Amino acid sequence: MDWKNLPGSGNVEDRRGGGGLPGGGLAVGGIGGLIIAVVAMFFGIDPSVILGGGDSGQQTQTQNTPAQNGQTQNGQTQNGQTQNSQTQGGTQDESYQFVDRILGSTDQVWTGIFQQSDRQYTKPRLVLFSGSVSSACGQASSAVGPFYCPLDSKVYLDTSFFNTMQRQLGGGGDFAYAYVIAHEVGHHVQNELGIADQVERKQRAARTEAEANSYSVRLELQADCFAGVWGNKVRGTEAANLTQADIREALTTASAIGDDTLQRAGQGRVVPDSFTHGSSEQRTEWFTKGFQSGNPNDCDTFAPAYDQL
């Protein structure tokens, strides 16, 4: 994947204390003693439940403008402080460049898709951090992994997670890392379309935990499918130069983060009623569906019966 040919977003906040990763590679660093079972939480849309912070009862606002996200059009926050794309003294190392260009590519793809329906796509910001970070959904540590906060319309990422993907999940590679970002952006798309709000209301009305979990699975599988839609659009450009090996990387990652795979590795047994993200087969299938068609309308994970997903 020739990610360096993709457009930059200019919409990345670098809050990393060290200002970059050593060694010039993406798969360096590390989270330490992270157990594999925790990875099941890495691709959620509602981190407030995990983090114990934020108001989970607050209604998510869709179609947020930059000002509603605490930022004006000229890059200043509402309290008058400038919101730079980097921390002071930071450097645009390779990991920063990679994230910026993948985000820029998702911006381009979803802006075009929304325009086809006469809608305006509000581009999300992506926050790079190391160790821990404060979001509108609460305080998060690196152990939570990449997440999207619907309360501030931002994606949060500690790039050391890429190292965890490679060493513990066998899901390394540039396109696999890009899939992670595209999945979280998929949650932003759901936020923009009002889908996240609808799912939250259904979860609150659910009579059992298993029913509530089923809505989470549908939401996550749709984000996988949206990531596939992005991959389809990128594949159609000469800039990305995707290969079959790149596609295998993404499929390997989708399979590795299935609830059944993670539960089997973490606790030795599988409990389908507790699934929140979908099985390895489901995640691979829905990513593939989006990747093959490039049509977000094919990503309706809420229409089929649950046992048919």
UniProtKB/TrEMBL annotation:
Pfam families listed in its UniProt record: Zn_peptidase
Compartment(s) where it occurs, according to its Swiss-Prot or TrEMBL record: Membrane
Keyword Plastid: no
Source organism superkingdom: Bacteria
Membrane topology note: Single-pass membrane protein
Biased composition (Low complexity): 57-92
Region Disordered, annotated ranges: 1-21, 54-93
Keywords: Membrane, Transmembrane, Transmembrane helix
Keyword Protease: no
The protein, known as: Neutral zinc metallopeptidase
Provenance organism: Deinococcus petrolearius
